[in-house]
Amino acid sequence: MSGGIFPLSGLAGGNGGASPFTNMTDFIVISVDTSSSPQSVVIASADIAIDFIFFVIKDETNNAAANNITITTEGSETIDVALSSVVVNADSGGLLLYSHNGNLFSW
Questions:
Q1: Could you tell me which of 4, 1, 106, 6 has the C-alpha nearest to residue 56?
Q2: Domains of the chain
Q3: Which distant-in-sequence residues (6+ apart) come within 8 Å of 16 by Cβ?
Q4: Which of 1-5, 55-59, 77-81, 94-98 bottoms out in mean pLDDT, i.e. has the lowest?
Q5: How far apart are the C-alpha atoms of 101 and 107, rounded to whole Å?
Q6: Average pLDDT over residues 70-92
Q7: How many CB atoms lie within 10 A of CB 17?
Q8: What are phi and psi of 91, to 5 degrees?
Q9: Residue 71: which of 85, 89, 56 has the closest Cα?
Q10: DSSP calls for 26-84
């Protein structure tokens, strides 16, 4: 995956052909390649609107300390009530989120 923003599509339509994303029932796994540049992941409002969808975001190339992964939402949704974005900045780091009541929460 090269640098840039990679929005997720709605669950009903699959993953829109974006190869890093794999929909598995109520899980969306986002494998992030941080080997050459910082990455942005934008989680779609359509996915957040469905309660208890689980998002697994993982640095698979062990370089997030140098090339951070910034996770945001497509719209005005929040992460853990007050955050508009979250940064993964540890090598091989990851983040687990779930949707509920139109927002995201970490676990």
A1: 106
A2: 5-10+19-106 (2.60.120)
A3: 8, 9
A4: 1-5
A5: 16
A6: 96
A7: 8
A8: -55, 135
A9: 85
A10: TEEEEEE--SSS-EEEEE-HHHHTSTT-EEEEEESSS-TTTS-EEEEESSS--BTTTBS
Residue 25 — pLDDT band, cuts 50, 70, 90?
low
pTM, two decimals, is 0.76
Strands across the sheet containing 21-24? 21-24, 27-32, 54-59, 94-100, 103-106
Contact 61, 37 (CB under 8 A): no
Those residues whose C-beta lies under 8 Å from the C-beta of residue 76, and which sit 6 or more positions away, are none
Which amino acid, 88? V
Q: For CA atoms 51, 59, 19, 44, give the dihedral sign.
A: positive
Tokens of 5: 């923003």
